[in-house]
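Quick one, T. Sequence first:
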Amino acid sequence: MELSSTDLIVLKEAYARLENPSLAIRLSSAVGMPVETVAKQLAKKAPQAVMDVVDNSTRKAIEFVMRNTVRTLTQEEHTAASPRMHQAAAATTGAVSGFFGIHALVVELPVTTGIMFRSIVDIARAEGESPQDDETIINAMQVFTMGSGLSDKDDAAETSYYGARLALGKAVTDALQYLASQGVPNAGAPVLMRLVAVIAHRFGMVVTQKAMAQALPIVGAVGGGLVNTMFISHFQDMARGHFSIRRLERQYGVDKVRESYQLLIEDDGE
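Structure tokens:
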């Protein structure tokens, strides 16, 4: 079955979000700098001190989501997602972090990530998924791996949306099998810790961009609250793209949606 004209528009919008990460664009618009200037700054190799803080912070942040935030999710009755509420909360934590500098990231990032995760699940629910479903939770965590536009090997296939999903395939499958068999998850289980490690590594690429953005003098003058607002907006876009595609996959099948998505990539490359 071919995608309807309406659903093809949905797929095109998801493609635009997922294959053209907007963090640099959002920041350049907010601070009045050319996007090329901001993108160049974000692409610079971060100092080792920043990398050390980011490595420590991202793992703690994803572990925090796994151990704490997941347990408190509830099935909301309303159907529309509420991104602005979560943006305001993230801006508050970012403002506090911005005051204390890069080393505050270890404390701030788990809180901000927990807020972002709730927003991601909220978007998933609005697309027809249940916050109580293990598959929804694992897919929500996958959103943190999307949209960096970077990889250690600069592999275009690996940084594409479906490439990122494929790279996480075994870790995700193992985690889902564990959750299905155990009923009550143990956040410290080795299979879940492996998933945390993979997600934290990829999430760290975008967190590094966030840290580098906060180091820009003009951004630092505006404050960490602005950067966090852009940060959560970025992942909200990734979530909208990801979960709208999952909705289409439930309707048309994974193969048909992936085939249509690939055609968009090919058309974009011509």
